[in-house]
Amino acid sequence: MQFKLNPKNPSSSGLRVIPVFENQVLDTLAAKNIKISVPASLFSGKKDSQYSFDSHGQVILLLGLGENPDYKTIENSFRRVLSKHASLVEKEVVLDLPGNMESSQVEAALVGFQLGAYSIGFYKKEKPKEYSKLKVEVLNELKKSKDLAERAEKIASAKMEAFKLVDLPPNKITPEHLGDWAKNLGKKLDLNVKVWDSKKAKSEKLEAFLAVGRGSAKDPRFIILEYRHPKASKHVGLVGKGVTFDTGGLNVKTQGMHHMKSDMGGAAAVLATTQLVADLGLPINLTTIVPAVENAIDKDAYLPSEVIGSHAGLSIEVIDTDAEGRLILADGLSYLIKNYSPDQVIDLATLTGSAIGTFGYECAALFTNDGSISHGLQAAGEEIGEKSWPLPIWDSYAKEMDSEIADIKNYHGKPFAGAITAAKFLQAFTHEHPAWAHLDIAGVAFSDTEFAKTKTGTAYGVSLLLRYFESIL
């Protein structure tokens, strides 16, 4: 897209998009010198409503935002323009923003508009409509419009990368592909990137990680990205679950397996966040680890009742091979903390059905041993529309993971507290780090949305982590 900001003489006769706050239709149209009466019964600016009409040969699309819209509401409203109103869009679009929109609201509008160009029709013979040459005039009264537009472009780019990493099929998004993606990002944004194969991972004693990948013909990759800023005062470590496809292993899944390309939603979130942080040049140090494997089945697949090792030195009794995400995260967390000692550690993972059973598809389950991180992530999520809610990690839950033959088992085998016991398992590998948070994003990383006919990636975590990082700087 080609953006032109605040042109003195708007010349486009293309689609004109005007956002309207609830019950401000008349004032907004008057301010835009549009002399037309819109009956309140047809359009009053309510959230998620639209109204279009012709004015002197130009199609005008009014977007209802509601009275006090949050970031996600505005983002989705503008995403609909290209996603759902493509027939109204030709070569040019005017985003005519009212003067009472705040900078964060303008950002949400610009991000959402660009996200509308995303489509999952990667392999269709008839390609989706292409918007790279679309000319977009943006009218608003903010002083730093150029900076805001550049920031919005970088956010949208990162979120679309997260979309693609989740939505593309598992024969494309393999552990090797994620490693190559990280290497390319490192070259583009000057990051230090390490990508280890199974041989190197074995020398680093990443035994739990390697056990999960044993049954796949696709060699695993242990990915490390290091972003450093000369003015950074904080160092945050991220770990993202990167199971590029999950059969369940020998405890094979009995339903929904075709959705398991999404089991690297945590990896997609932390990789895209790393891209965004580096692209924006945030004054923070960031170390990101993605253990990337495919959990498949063959003669070498790891077995229920096996006892395996781990980077932390703890032995693990494998009760269920479908509880594989916590095994690779255990090694990722341990390696990160032991070798980098970050001030804060946050992991994101599509980890348990239990989290969905508790919260449905509305928010992530949050587990942390640090109150400031808990409050910070919740507040950031409320602001940005990527919510989380805390669950306890009391020590009394740890006994559920006791093993008689090993130091710990990977699954308690009971139909309750599954998300909590999974979090307690992970905590055992954090070397008592005092500021760790785990986000179980099983219900929010891959979801039914209005923008596709099937479940798709949501990029949950990218905007959340950006807002959280900026709040602690």
UniProtKB/TrEMBL annotation:
Peptidase M17 leucyl aminopeptidase N-terminal domain: residues covered: 23-127
Family matches, as CDD domains: Peptidase_M17
GO molecular function, one term: aminopeptidase activity
InterPro entries: Leucine_aapep/pepB, Macro_dom-like, Peptidase_M17_C, Peptidase_M17_N
Protease found in the keyword field: yes
UniProt KW keywords: Aminopeptidase, Hydrolase, Manganese, Protease
Highest taxon, organism lineage: Bacteria
Family annotation (Pfam families): Peptidase_M17, Peptidase_M17_N
Domain Cytosol aminopeptidase, chain residue ranges per copy: 164-465
Signal peptide: none
Similarity comment text for this entry: Belongs to the peptidase M17 family.
Protein name per its UniProtKB record: Leucyl aminopeptidase family protein
Organism: Algoriphagus aquatilis
